[in-house]
Structures are given as C-alpha cells and as structure tokens.
From TrEMBL:
UniProt keyword list: Aminotransferase, DNA-binding, Pyridoxal phosphate, Transcription, Transcription regulation, Transferase
Record region (Disordered): 91-110
Pfam families, per the entry: Aminotran_1_2, GntR
SMART domains listed in its UniProt record: HTH_GNTR
Domain HTH gntR-type, residue spans: 26-94
Family the entry assigns: In the C-terminal section; belongs to the class-I pyridoxal-phosphate-dependent aminotransferase family.
Name the UniProt record assigns to this protein: Transcriptional regulator, GntR family domain / Aspartate aminotransferase
C-alpha cells in the first residue's frame, strides 16, 4: 500500500526529504523514484527543492549509494528532477520539459537512449554460451531421477555433492580445500553477509581498502560495524597501513579483493600478499578474501588465504565469471575451523540455498562447462577492453592491465567524480563515481568506474564509450542558474 497524501505532512523545502518505502514493490531504485513522484504530486516536495546528496539518502535508507544514484537517474528520466553540476539534484515543476535520454531497450538502436556502463556484470552477447548451457542442463535435469530430491530440503551448508563441487571450483583459484570447509551460498554477496554475521559483533572494526566494493559498506551498517579504510597503491592494500590500524586499535576482520580489485582492477603481487597475511597473523585478524573476478586473468598469484590458512575465509565467485542469474557462490572456511557457525547463519536467513541452481553449477564444474564459460568470458572481456582503449584513446588514464569487465578511468585535472558522472548521464552514458567506493574521510580520487560488460552488443558499447570520450573532451559544464 503506497503513501497517501496528508495535510499533516510538512512541505519539504531543504535536503531533509526521506521517501516512505513501506508497502511498495519492485526494484528499490524504482520504488524510491515512485515515492519521489508521489511526494511531488502531493505537494510535499515543491519545485526547486534540493534533494539529499546520494550519500546522505543512502545512509538514511540503509542502501548503497549506487541504488540512490539509479533512483535519481530514474527520476531525472521521468522529468521529476534535474541535476546541476556541483550543486545537487532539484525537484522539477510538473510542466518543466526534460530531454534526458531514455534507457536503452534490448536490441534498440535509438541514438538518444541511455547507455548503461555503471552496472558491473559479465557480457551476455548474442548466442550467449551460458544460456545455451543452462538450457541443456535443465533438459537433462528434467529426465533425471534426482529431480525430486532437488525439490526437498537440504542441509543449510548444502548437500555433500554440491559442497564437493564447491571445493573443486575453489581449487580453480589455487586454493586446496575439503568439502566440509565449503558452505553453498546464494551468490558472493550472500557469502559476505553470512561471514559477517558469523564472525563479527556490533562495534567490531571492519578494515577494508580505502576504495572497496560498496556492498560491504551496506552490510557493515546493517551489522553495526566500524569501518576503517586502509591506504592502498597501484598494487592494492599497503601492509604498513594494516599494521598501523592494528596497533591503533583492535581490528576484528579485514575484507579485501587482492585479485582484480573492484573498482581499481589492481592485482596484489604475491610478495605483498605474504606481508599482509603475516601482519594479520601477528595481530590475530580474521581475513575475508573476495575473489569475484579471480579467474579472468589466465595467470595470477595464489590467493592470500594460501598464506593464512588458519584464519582466512574465502569467497569463490561465480556471478562475474559465469553468469549472475545462478545466484550461487561458495564461502570457504579455514581448514581447522568448523563451518557449523557459517551454516547456521545460512539456515537462520533462508534455511538453505536453492538446490536446483546448486545442482546446475555442480554439473558445470564436473563436466568442464564452467571452465569453458570462463575462457569465453576472458576472451570477451579482453576484446571489449581493446575496444575501450581504442575509443577512449592513449591519452586517457584507464587502468585495464588484466581482462576485466570494469575499467578505472582517471579524470583530467580539475574534474570531480560526482560532477563528471552527472554530466555523463546528461550526455547519454551512465558510469559510477569514485565516491561510491570510498571508505572513511580520506580524499577520493578523481576517477570513475566504467563497466563494459553490460551492453549486449559491442556496437552499443562503442556508442557509450564515444559519448564518454566526448564528455572527457568537453570539459566541465557551466553551473546552471536557478
């Protein structure tokens, strides 16, 4: 049931607006945009009202900054708001015209449509091999005598066969584990949630790289953890920064992505992994290693968990390597630690992870389909990166040293990340500001993340990249006059 207009609700004229989301259904970003439209139409948001910043509203609602960015973008496409470079987002009058590009429809060739380069996902080109593999697997399962078994309750950690597949998949990353160390989760994000629930208490310090995956920030707020961003360089987390944080106070858990860091793409060298592991061991810090992209490089250092087996937890990713729709990921605990606590958290939240999808992935791991899909994604990522380098030009600071579906694009001097992101959207291409990834009060670099996997075709990707190149060349747009 949606919000109802009420004369007792005060008119909002400053940045204190918080949408009422109770009873609404659909994707969260659209729900926020719907609430904004209703409040404007009911007179609770007057034309010219400046809305909260993306970060402010995200903190109020307990969602990611990216969700608010998409919500404001959706509202701007509907003509509800306008973004002004360096000033914020303002409510439009109902009669105000809007010329924002519409989101591109699948297969559309409209020149004015928005090209989405802010969602980090693997490519699904025409003839997508993952779709073909899934179709074949479902046909086989339909004839399998085990089908009824897959519709029954399973142990919270997953059935033995599925945990064996998880151990085999983790071995692809260079980490040898036993099935009893594996907990089958509904994707990597769920694995992170399970780990935090099992390993931390409210008030604990969660250390991360100074730039980190935004999903961990949302979970930290949910579990009332104190986040601490640690300094990093082109190779990732600095061991001295972890050492200093541990000496200054008790760090309970370190979350990091040493291979194909999101957003920078950094790959931590083996020597530094050993140093970080030694600091964590010396101070009794647990480590949660997220390897969402780890198989995209054909050559990579061993996981950090290899150097800290007694207190490392490892997420063996699937969504960014095969396809996100399976919603399966593997959370691996230390060799000597029991995984009952991890399994208990899965059981408390959802009883179990969907066994049908776990079975599909198990078959793919066993028969080599998963390996073939990784090779295909690696090839596609490399070819899309080559296209991006060609379109953006040699003079652009764009980190892409290994095959990945995201690029870390450094901005020219004098450009700000949030302002550039808003300007790019007005010119028909969506990217992600560096502010979304920052942890703590440190200075956020002038950069944006550019995701090159989402466009279904390379022609659409090229269109988005060319628009991005035009925004880079255009310089800052002048401030609008209210």
């Amino acid at each position: 049931m949606g919000l109802q207009p009420s004369s007792s609700v005060p008119i909002v004229t400053e940045t204190s607006w918080t949408p009422g989301l109770e009873g609404r259904r659909g994707p969260l970003y659209r729900v926020i945009a719907d609430a904004l439209a209703e409040d404007r139409d009911a007179g609770r948001l007057l034309p010219g009202t400046r809305l909260p910043t993306h970060r402010e509203l995200a903190e109020r609602l307990g969602v990611t900054v990216g969700t608010v960015t998409r919500a404001y973008g959706e509202a701007e496409k509907r003509g509800l708001v306008r973004g002004e470079v360096g000033r914020g987002t303002y409510v439009r009058d109902k009669a105000s015209p809007t010329h924002m590009p519409r989101p591109v429809e699948e297969g559309s060739a409209e020149e004015g449509s928005l090209v989405e380069l802010s969602i980090n996902a693997p490519a699904t080109p025409e003839g997508d091999p993952a779709s073909q593999a899934l179709r074949a697997s479902l046909e086989e399962l339909g004839r399998s005598p085990r089908l009824a078994e897959l519709l029954a309750y399973q142990p919270p950690a997953g059935g033995l066969r599925h945990r064996e597949a998880g151990a085999a998949w983790t071995g692809r990353f260079g980490l040898s584990v036993r099935p009893e160390q594996v907990v089958v989760c509904a994707g990597g994000q769920h694995g992170m949630e399970v780990a935090l629930a099992a390993l931390t208490q409210p008030g604990d310090v969660l250390a991360t790289e100074a730039l980190t995956y935004p999903g961990i920030k949302v979970l930290a707020r949910r579990f009332q953890l104190r986040m601490q961003g640690l300094a990093m360089d082109a190779d990732g987390l600095l061991p001295d920064a972890l050492e200093a944080a541990c000496r200054a106070g008790s760090v309970r858990l370190l979350y990091l992505q040493p291979t194909c860091h999101n957003p920078t793409g950094a790959v931590m060298p083996e020597a530094r992994r050993r140093e970080v592991a030694e600091v964590a061991r010396r101070h009794g810090v647990l480590v949660l290693e997220d390897d969402s992209y780890g198989l995209l490089p054909s050559v990579r250092p061993p996981p950090l968990a290899c150097f800290l087996p007694e207190s490392s937890y490892f997420i063996a990713g699937v969504s960014k390597l095969l396809t996100p729709g399976l919603r399966i990921g593997y959370l691996v605990g230390p060799a000597r630690a029991r995984c009952e606590r991890l399994a208990e958290e899965v059981g408390l939240a959802s009883l179990m992870t969907t066994p049908l999808m776990a079975e599909v992935l198990s078959r793919w791991v066993e028969d080599g389909t998963a390996d073939a899909l990784v090779v295909a994604q690696r090839r596609e990522a490399g070819e899309r990166q080559a296209l991006a380098r060609e379109v953006l030009g040699a003079g652009v600071r764009c980190r892409a040293s290994v095959p990945l579906y995201h690029l870390w694009l450094g901005l020219p001097e004098g450009r700000r990340s949030e302002a550039f992101t808003a300007q790019a959207r007005r010119h028909g291409v969506s990217v992600t500001s560096a502010d979304l990834f920052g942890v703590g009060p440190g200075v956020v670099p002038a950069a944006v993340r550019v995701c090159i996997g989402t466009p279904r075709t390379r022609a659409l990707l090229e269109r988005g990249l060319r628009r991005l190149r035009e925004v880079l060349d255009a310089g800052n747009e002048p401030l609008a006059v209210v």
